[in-house]
TrEMBL record:
InterPro entries: CAT-like_dom_sf. The keyword RNA-binding does not apply. This is Acylsugar acyltransferase 3. The keyword Ligase does not apply. It comes from the Eukaryota. One of its GO terms (molecular function) is acyltransferase activity. Keywords: Acyltransferase, Transferase.
């Protein structure tokens, strides 16, 4: 746990049940094959609201939010149920954890810290087994010395993805802001196994996430900001390159390309004679491909696919080529049925088959699968976490908690006044040290840290 946790002290901790019991006809939630591929670990999100936005005191806000939290759980039964096997959640109204903490410092001292751990001690952790008191969802209210407040949630990735987490938070905000009677006109829709049913011979057994041992592997997460003007400059640099074949590159494409290039070069510099080749793996939302008969405004589940670029050597790491390869890989997704030909599922099925049949053990398979450095990219830039309004305006900041996953990069939009992209980069200590000394990346990005104010580096 980070040093930030030393500033926290618990006020209260309780289990909140749904306001209305789950009907008998909705007691069984069947996980899709994609859901089964996901580890049962928490996705941590946090929203910061300064004192000047809050018209009520801490006790009144706590009562209001706990009440609306109970009501929103009525519409999201799977996140308050019990995971009974790898393919089924019993929506038995077990409840969600709800607790409050005091933060013994002003909000502006932690709001931009790279080692955020909201909710307390749960960031990206495996969900404990139900028999051990584990809950599929946790909410935390954090009260700062200055009078500001943070609302954070950890909800199981087994139930849904980042877009699903946003639907949960949006419904909670709507009920807090507009509907004291606890009614939603357009509740979220859980697709369950309607898109990708379970296997006929039983659920896919996927192991839990391996949490890093701090004594064995020290990962460093840094956060950087790329302003709107620097995004334009970076796009122009790529388009104007004589070797470029891509027009109108997206922000995600160009920023993914430059972060990957610099991280891959840093990784090659510490390869110690091992394979210095590398590859990008990216995630794409499939909601636009859902059949009209199933599609809903707020569709919940793990509805995504992974795609990858070629494996690169150092001489291949040129920005126009990287952007072109990302674009090509995305285009290939549009030419096939991604529910029937989902790479994430096929990879997990191959993994499970080799492990379960004993043809390879877990360690040897992982070693073969990691013969080159793989950098995972995930973007929530098109998910408006920054617009979540519980009745006192938009948050001054929306963020993801620190991640333990090595070689992982998250992209997220910043607030309107900054109009840019924030990137969360997790590398080992030696690689991060080299990454930060790169000459190209600092031309476009500024580090984010304690009390840091985003600056627009004009070109």
């Amino acid at each position: 746990m980070s040093s930030f946790s030393k500033l926290l002290s618990t006020i209260s901790k309780k289990v909140v049940k749904p306001f209305s019991p789950t009907p008998p006809t909705q007691r069984i939630h069947k996980l899709s094959l994609l859901d089964q591929c996901m580890g049962n670990f928490y996705m941590p999100l946090v929203l910061f609201y300064p004192k000047h936005q809050l018209e009520q005191g801490p006790k009144q806000l706590s009562k209001l939010l706990e009440n609306s939290f109970s009501k929103v759980l009525t519409y999201h039964q799977p996140w308050v149920g019990s995971l009974r096997d790898h393919a089924t959640i019993h929506c038995d109204d077990t409840g969600a954890e709800f607790f409050e903490v005091e933060v013994n410092c002003p909000m502006d001292q932690v709001v931009h810290r790279p080692d955020l751990t909201f909710p307390l001690g749960l960031s990206w952790k495996n969900v404990p087994h139900a028999n051990d008191g584990g809950r599929l969802s946790v909410a935390q209210l954090s009260h700062f010395d200055c009078g500001g407040m943070a609302i954070s949630v950890c909800i199981s990735h087994k139930v849904g993805d980042g877009r699903s987490a946003f639907s949960f938070l949006k419904d909670w905000a709507t009920l807090t802001r507009e509907h004291p009677n606890g009614e939603l006109s357009c509740p979220s829709y859980y697709v369950q196994d309607s898109l990708m049913p379970s296997l006929p011979d039983g659920p896919l057994k996927f192991p839990v996430m391996v949490e890093p041992n701090a004594q064995e592997s020290i990962e460093f997460e840094k956060r950087f900001f790329l302003s709107e003007s620097n995004i334009r400059s970076l796009k122009a640099l790529i388009v104007d390159d004589s070797s470029s074949i891509v027009q109108n590159p997206t922000t995600t494409e160009v920023f993914s390309a430059i972060v990957y290039k610099c991280a891959a070069i840093a990784g090659a510099n510490i390869s110690n004679g091992n394979d210095s080749s590398s590859q990008m793996v990216l995630v794409s939302d499939l909601r636009k491909k859902i059949p009209p008969s199933i599609k809903s405004t707020s569709t919940i589940g793990n509805i995504l696919i992974t795609f990858s670029t070629p494996i690169y050597n150092l001489e291949d790491l040129r920005l126009p080529k990287l952007v072109a390869d990302i674009r090509k890989s995305k285009h290939e997704l549009s030419t096939r049925d991604n529910f029937k030909e989902n790479k994430l599922v096929s990879d997990m099925l191959e993994y499970a088959n080799k492990i379960n049949t004993g043809t390879e053990d877990d360690q040897s398979y992982r070693q073969k699968s990691s013969c080159h450095n793989v950098y995972g990219f995930s973007s929530v830039c098109n998910i408006p976490f920054q617009d979540l309004d519980f009745g006192w305006g938009r948050p001054t900041r929306a963020s993801i908690a620190s991640t333990p996953f090595s070689n992982t990069i998250f992209l997220m939009n910043t607030q309107d006044q900054n109009r840019g992209i924030e990137v969360f980069i997790n590398l080992n200590q030696q690689q991060m040290s080299i990454f930060e000394q790169d000459k190209e990346f600092p031309q476009f990005a500024s580090p984010v840290g304690d009390n840091h104010v985003h600056e627009d580096k004009e070109k």
